[in-house]
Task: inverse folding
């Protein structure tokens, strides 16, 4: 039977401000990318999400980012490699404290926003991220875009490289994500997201913005937690996958 992991970005709040419905999303997804305080998140939020995830048996991932709270980690930044390596390790370590306190652990690492996109093509930044993972815990898998410099660097370092796809983001013909600043970068039609999810999980394919069909091999499917109606959309995606014979489970 075909299987797929469902991941979502969670803990994306700060103080009294909360963006994602963490509790409800954790009843649907199998992996949680938890903000570690650099693009969103704070100690109280991180602790709460780890406790909720542990109680539901959801795998916890460290969603590391550039230090950019004001820009939600989506602004391009130039960070020296040594600094980025240290900051990635710092974020993983901070989340690990709360994961262990909840009786579980950080199980993987996924960059967020601008850092994620930068690591698709930038070998230096990708290597710095991987070095940060190695510094924190050399057993952690790295989640990223198929064909990216990030996953290439992870494999070279002996880390498990886990491919992911995006049901609610538009793709270029080259298999990369259309930048958020461009029209049509985010797929907003719920039915389209559901159908794209099934196509990615079952057929390993997606239609690009130009209308071309491309192959996308992915072990995990990302649904953005900050999308309006994210909880209901996630439920519809999971229901459609399971009713179509796709097993939804955390990646092995």
Result:
């Amino acid at each position: 039977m075909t299987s797929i992991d469902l991941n979502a970005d969670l803990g994306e709040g700060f103080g009294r401000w909360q963006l994602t419905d963490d509790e409800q999303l954790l009843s649907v997804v199998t992996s949680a990318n938890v903000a570690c305080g650099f693009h969103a998140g704070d100690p109280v939020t991180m602790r709460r999400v780890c406790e909720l995830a542990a109680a539901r048996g959801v795998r916890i991932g460290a969603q590391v980012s550039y230090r950019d709270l004001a820009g939600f980690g989506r602004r391009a930044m130039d960070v020296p490699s040594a600094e980025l390596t240290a900051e990635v390790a710092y974020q993983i370590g901070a989340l690990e404290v709360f994961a262990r306190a909840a009786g579980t652990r950080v199980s993987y690492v996924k960059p967020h926003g601008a850092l994620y996109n930068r690591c698709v093509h930038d070998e230096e930044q990708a290597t710095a991220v991987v070095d940060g993972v190695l510094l924190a815990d050399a057993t952690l898998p790295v989640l990223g875009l198929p064909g990216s410099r990030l996953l290439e660097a992870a494999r070279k370092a002996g880390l498990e490289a886990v491919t992911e796809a995006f049901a609610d983001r538009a793709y270029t013909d080259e298999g990369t994500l259309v930048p958020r600043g461009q029209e049509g970068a985010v797929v907003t039609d719920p039915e389209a997201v559901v159908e794209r999810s099934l196509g990615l999980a079952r057929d390993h394919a997606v239609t690009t913005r130009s209308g071309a069909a491309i192959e996308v091999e992915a072990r995990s499917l990302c649904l953005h937690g900050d999308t309006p109606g994210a909880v209901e959309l996630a439920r519809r995606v999971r229901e459609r996958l399971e009713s179509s014979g796709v097993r939804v489970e955390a990646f092995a």
Observations:
- The two ends are 14 Å apart (CA to CA).
- DSSP finds eight helices and twelve strands in the chain.
- The longest helix spans residues 81-101.
- The first strand starts at residue 3 and ends at 10.
